[in-house]
Amino acid sequence: MLKSASMSSYDLILSRDSYLLGLELRLYWSVAFLYGLSLLFFISHAITRGDTAGKTGQTTLLVTVTAHIALIVLRTFEAGRAPFQTLYETLSWFACSSSLTYLYVSRRWRSVYLPATLVAGLSLGACLYALLSRSPAVEPLSPPLQSYWFEWHVILAFFSYAVFVVSAAIELTCLIIKPLLSRGAARGYGLTLDAIDGLHTTAYRLVLFGYPLLTFAIFSGAAWANEAWGRYWSWDPKETWSLITWTVFTIYLHSKAIPGLKGLPASLFNILGFVCMMMTFLGVNWLAKLLGIPSLHVYAV
Amino acid sequence: MRYRDIHPIIEKVRPYCLEAAGRLKRFPQWSLKTLSSLMTSVYILGALALLYMVGTIFPQGGDIGEYAKAGGKYVSFVRFFDLLDFFSSPVFLLSALLLLLNLVVCTYKRYGPLFAKRVFPNTFDPTHTFKLTHDYPEALPEVRRVLHEKLGFRLVSKDNEWIVMEKGLSCRWLTWLYHAGIVLCFFGLILSYLFAFEGEMTLKPRTPLIVAPSTTGRLASLYQKTAGPAGFSLYLDDFSTEYIQHPGLDYPKDKLSRLAIGLGWKGPEYSMKNDPMTPKDWRSRLRVIKGGSTVKEKTIEVNDPLRYGGYTFYQVGYEQTLRIRVDFNPIALETKADGDIIVPGLDTPLRFGTVMTGTLYRLDGAVEKILPFTTVKAVLTGPPGGKKTEDLGKLELGGSIIVDGRRVSLADYEESSVLSYRYDPGVAVLWWGGAFVLIAMCLRFYGRSYMVAYAVDESDRIVCLNLHIVSKGLMADTEKLAGRIGYYLTRDDIRPVPLPPL
Ligand code: HEM
Fold first, then answer.
1. Which residues of B356-377 are buried (b: 16+ CB within 10 A; e: fewer)?
2. Which of A102, A139, B431, B483 has its CA 20 to 30 A from that of B234?
3. How far is CA B174 from CA A17, A139, A220, B96, B445, in A?
4. pLDDT confidence of residue A298
5. Residue B293 in this model has a pLDDT that exceeds 70
6. pTM for the whole thing?
7. Whether A28 contacts A92, CB under 8 Å
8. How many angstroms away from the CA of A259 is the closest CA of chain B?
9. Domain residues for A115?
10. B57 or A224, greater pLDDT
11. Apex B59 CA angle, B57 and B64, nearest 5
12. CA B428 to CA B436: how far, in whole Å?
């Protein structure tokens, strides 16, 4: 039986952990606020077409991501492990890696800020979802999660997600702006029809980068399941949606090699792939609920 | 009936028959062509994506009766298409088979062309042009020397006016290789589908148990019920559990209070109410015994199974049997942890919780052995569907509590290890296929390869190098390559030197 007398010796540890968590939450809210601010600047750029608003948004996003990296480092220190275990933690990683990837990809662009609206919006949404609906408690690693596959599986899966988010943001911008540009509208966004072609190529290259990562994530997930539960595939909704995402991106890459599909249909496949990826990440049971179908396999998050 | 009578009918039907026969004759060719097309793969992959979706909407492995009881819709539709076991249904399996066929035909058809000599069109649009200072006869070998010696290009063809060279791993080969890798993965999946089986066994300490599966693979199940004894037994030397102390977090659910924490007006608080402990690991020290001797020993835990004889044994949990003594009765009652037991002389059934035993890793870094204890609850009759319980307290090994005037003590307990096992000859093939796919894919996507077609032109006495550069892979940079070619070709040229200022 445990001795309750020894409890008082934990006070120091508990108050330290509580203090660190309080600090983390304050930083996390600040980061969410900054994402919101940069989103406002990007929206203002989309409305006014002003370069200043876009530039300020981009700078704010850079500051936000720097603060967000500090937040992730703090969480790593607090938890004493890679912070990718709970949905609270993965949402944070998702927001940070998406924005970071965007900043990296957009570093050579001049006066193009439109794709950032979606990226900043998604990052803000992910942070608010984590802060308002999930518990920030540092959970101990349950036995199945104590695997060397776990960290690589999650880190690379989320890296591919980040890349797909940016690719979709670019693709969506192209799809909206291209028809406007050909009608002579949509000036002031730093985009020309030639630049749009370049953006399509960037979106394609991003998928090329993310696809092997997603492939690795699926294989490593299967290898992990095989080590932990003795079955590499059990058609769990999360697994199945990751396969759907992978299949849709395969269709996208194939359609890029088919002359009749490499234009608009390919772009639509890319965006569909992004939607499927979001389903894999968050919306697994949403469809079943929407159709009023009882799900016996509510995936633990 | 005479031939004369049926002749007109035959004449009428004849063209249709001939056409049908013609189509039949062309069918194998047509199907091969269709199956080797990239477009077909888009259709099949699209159809499969939709089918996967169906499988995520309907609860897989569910029972149709339960499904209907839970208010599930479209019951007859669900039953007809086997939607609760969709990934084993004919519709799904046939679609997957069609993709495999598509993939095999496609890979087969593209194998030959990998070795074929590549033919380039006679005219290219140059993507880059350099003015050379070499004479025309010198220019050609010089360009060749720079590309080959300085930049590592290999000759591909020099049949026509354009000379073609390449550098890096061949993209066609890599693309082909990872498609072949996917075929290998499919082969692993098929092996799993046909031959894999699994089950569970509960190992009591120091009691050897023969591994004798009660099922067998799909194919073997057509002619036998079980796979038969595996020819060895498992022996559990020891089972142990490790716990860690896990503080609880006092954190509000409502959004405004959370915002208040974000603003620093309040703080979240960790606490250690009721000595919270969470399992960290379960370990079984196992021995494989064959022909009376130990042939393998291993301590397994979750994520670290034991492999032997084609089987893999996984730690999935444990079972505890508790021996309860009432008053000083020499005969102990046996009960399973977390099960209800009716104790003679007591009005309410009792429920004994899991015996906490093993090693505890404390929050402050101390490690200690837990003195085994359980918790006792009285099971009260509650509302239908759920029983109410009342906590009666903790009970240490050898200790006792008084319930309804009777002394209830924990005399002893026994822990058995619950293992699951699986026999799956497809796994190794699948991993080989996967490694193949990943390596080839990474080389193809992240690497770089270039193909350069060039011609030296001498119109108007100006010697020019016309280049057409094609690149693949994310690391490839055509502009950089063009720059390097330009640099090497003009490096030794005499350039005007700016005069020093006066
Ligand atoms: C699970 C099935 C499949 C997967 C995951 C897959 C994956 C891919 C990927 C990612 C690419 C684009 C990368 C590149 O350009 O090298 C690609 C290209 C290609 N795929 Fe597939 N594929 C599958 C099935 C098929 C099938 C059934 C065919 C046969 C028709 C096929 C034929 C091709 C060809 C010819 C290319 C090269 C396109 C080009 O010229 O760039 N694939 N595949």
1. bbbebbbbeeeeeebebbbbbb
2. B431
3. 51, 43, 21, 24, 9
4. 39
5. yes
6. 0.89
7. yes
8. 10
9. 2-300
10. A224
11. 120
12. 12
pLDDT in tens, B63-120: 788 878 877 778 888 888 888 889 999 999 999 999 999 999 999 999 988 888 776 6
Chain B neighbors of A296, CB-CB under 8 A: 59-62, 66
Q: How many domains does chain A have?
A: 1
Please answer yes or no on whether A22 and B301 come within 8 Å at the CB atom.
no
* pLDDT tens by residue, A30-52: 999 999 999 999 999 999 988 89
Which residues of chain A neighbour B373 with C-beta distances below 8 Å?
A: 1
The ligand 1 atom at the shortest distance from the C-alpha of residue B107 is 29
Enumerate the residues of chain B whose CB falls inside 8 A of the CB of residue A291. Answer: 57, 73
Q: Distance from B396 to chain A by nearest Cα, in Å?
A: 7
Question: Closest residue (by CA) to atom 6 of ligand 1?
Answer: A250
Over residues B306-312, mean pLDDT = 94
d(CA B32, CA B34): 5
Partner residues linked to B230 by β-bridges:
none
**Side-chain-facing half-sphere of B187: CA atoms under 13 Å:** 13
Measure A254 CA to ligand 1 centroid, in angstroms: 6
Rounded mean pLDDT of chain A? 89
Whose alpha carbon is nearest atom 14 of ligand 1? B175
Tell me the residue length of chain B.
502
Window A:164-183, CB contacts with B under 8 Å:
none
One-letter amino acid at B125 equals D
